[in-house]
Amino acid sequence: MKRRRFVSLLTGAVASLPLAARTQQPAMPVIGFLHAGSPDENVKRLAAFRKGLADAGFLEGQNVAIEYRWAEGRNQNLPAMVADLIQRKVALIATPGSTAAAVVARAATAVIPIVFSSGSDPVALGLVTSLNRPGGNATGITSLNAELAAKRLGVFRELVPNASRYFTLVKPTSELAAPFVNDLQNAAASLGIQVEVLKAETAAEIDQAFAGIPQAPGTVMVFGPEGFFYVHRAHIVELALRKALPTMFDVRDYVDAGGLASYGSDYMNAMELVGGYVARILKGEKPAELPVQQATRFELVINRKTAKALGIDISPTLLATADDVVE
Questions:
Q1: 172 CB-contact burial (10 Å; exposed 0-12 / middle 13-18 / buried 19+)
Q2: How sure is the predictor about 73, in pLDDT bands with cuts at 50, 70 and 90?
Q3: Which residue has the higher pLDDT, 231 or 278?
Q4: What is the spatial distance between Cα 252 and Cα 160, in angstroms, rounded to a whole number?
């Protein structure tokens, strides 16, 4: 066969191949995004997560894909969701702002990298071996919100000086319940306060818990990190206002919904940090070698409109200390 004829045939054969086969473009990595909540209530947080990715060079739809799985407050669906992500062979599972999702993901795989943000101690939850040396396939950000109980109670007492009877509400089957109650009771004891613990596993039980709280001056309620209550935050705030009950929460979203005050980590910053860690792992770093970061930015948010409705006069000092005041 003449050389010119051979080259012509070879060129034609290459041209007939699919474009993907000729260019040999690397497959776009896929992030499995697992969350116990819903997308509607996490729009801003999701934007912060994407910003963390983008700052590190990953843009959704361009050089990274994201498979979203939202449990919509039904944590019992999380195991099936993470199993589906594992079957799809995602490059990584991210569970920002959802401790329940992180625990389920960690139990489901010891191979696929996991990046979490948790409101409690990830060592106690079994997510990592230690903060400095995670040691497995998981790492992330911890806000340690459950350990902020003493600060939260102190601010609450300053905000409501006549507070004399404290209640808290927990979801007993949640991984966060035990450490939160333990820290809250220890902090309360150091301040000479007693906290009565109420329990709720369903929306109906939230109503029942509030029905058992007396509507009396000096009665207040403090909440810790719990995704189930976050899903029902608007209803919780409504119940509290109906009983003229001052409330203290761990994140500002409750205050935006009408709660009295919150003190906790800056969750937007934590979500950005998770996005940054996801990017580092996609670039080749190993979770076992990435220390768990601890949140360093915290915020006090007060709802002045709610305070007025409850007849609470906020001291100028506390107002000046607040990072944000909802009017």
A1: exposed
A2: confident
A3: 278
A4: 18
Q: Is 244 left (phi over 0), alpha (psi -120 to 50) or beta?
A: left
Q: Is the pLDDT of residue 22 over 60?
A: no
Distance CA 122, CA 69 (A): 22
Domain 146-265+299-326 adopts which CATH fold? Rossmann fold (3.40.50)
Indicate the CATH number of 30-144+266-298 among 3.40.50.2300, 3.40.50.300, 3.60.15.10, 3.40.1710.10.
3.40.50.2300
Comparing C-alpha atoms, which of 200, 201, 249, 227 is closest to residue 102? Answer: 227
Residue 20 pLDDT greater than 90, yes or no: no
Instruction: Write down the residue that tokens 């106690």 correspond to.
Output: 124
pLDDT at residue 146 in the model = 53
Task: Pick 34 or 269 by higher pLDDT.
Answer: 34
Residue 127 has a pLDDT of 95
The Cα 156–Cα 180 span in angstroms is 17
CB 49 within 8 A of CB 275: yes
Give the Cα separation of 136 and 113 in Å (integer).
9
* CB-based contacts of 4, cutoff 8 Å, min separation 6: none
Q: 3-class SS at 133?
A: coil
Query: How remote is the C-alpha of 145 from its chain's centroid?
Result: 11
Residues of the chain with CATH 3.40.50.2300: 30-144+266-298, 146-265+299-326
Token readout for 158 is: 């300053």
Residue with tokens 């039904």: 74
